[in-house]
Each structure stands twice: as structure tokens, then as C-alpha cells.
Amino acid sequence: MRLATALFGTEAFRKPPKKRRSRHRDALADELGFVDERRSPINKPLFESWSVNLAHLDESQGQRLIEQRETVQNHFLDLMGQDKFVESISIGTQWDEQVRTRFKEIETLLRKVLE
């Protein structure tokens, strides 16, 4: 949980507002660029997929992610622009395919950043 907070602050495990999901956005509202007028609730599928994937990392990998947190955030915003991923955290979230999709996409995101 500490690593997720270090990467995303108070926006950890939350869907960013739609107007913030594009990398080509106006000046960031805060250092993360996720905060809107209202904060979205914690999304359980995001909590599940991020926490499990982050738990598999060792301390040095976690530190490398923190050092590249802006890259992690941008890749996450890119994921939030993909319909299949958004559906996996929004619709039929208990279905096997949806679970596999979100876990795999978060894992792939982390691997890309750690390469």
C-alpha cells in the first residue's frame, strides 16, 4: 500500500476523471494530474490488480518505480484510455476474462517501466 501511495498519492486505486485520462491535457490540476473537483471512490478492481502486482516486486524494483512515478502515471492514464481495460475495471468485474485483463495490463505496465 505504501508503494501505491508513493506512486499515486491520495489518488491510488481510483479512476482518474475522464478529462484527465489523456496525456495531452491542459496544465495539471495537481502534481499527479488526477484530481478533479470531486474525488472518485476507490475502485475495488484497481485496488486488487495494483496491490497484487505491486506486492510481487522487491524493494529495489519498488524504488525504481518511485523514481519513475511520472512514467507510471502516464502509462496508467494511457491504460485508462483503452476501452477493454476500462471495461475490465467497470463491467462484469468478477468475470474471469475481466480479471485476467486487468491483472495482465497492470503487470505489463510495470514491466515496461522496469525495463
Provide an overview of this structure:
The chain has 115 residues and is mostly helical. It has one domain (2-114). Helix content is 56%, strand content 0%. The protein has helices spanning 2-8, 44-55, 59-67, 69-79, 83-88, 96-114. The longest helix has 19 residues, at 96-114. The protein is globular. The model is unreliable at 22-29 (pLDDT under 50).
State the distance separating the first and last CA atoms: 23 Å
DSSP summary, beta strand count: 0
Percent helix, as a range, is 55-70%
Report the radius of gyration as a whole number of Å: 13 Å
Kindly estimate the percentage of residues that lie in beta strands according to DSSP.
under 5%
What spatial form do the alpha-carbon principal axes imply?
globular
Q: Give, in order, the helices and strands.
A: HHHHHH
- Structural class, by secondary structure, is mainly alpha
What key phrases describe this protein's structure?
mainly alpha, single chain, globular, 115 residues
Present the secondary structure layout.
Layout: H1 2-8, H2 44-55, H3 59-67, H4 69-79, H5 83-88, H6 96-114
Helix pairs in contact: 2-6, 3-4, 4-6
Write a concise synopsis of the structure shown:
This protein has helices at 2-8, 44-55, 59-67, 69-79, 83-88, 96-114.
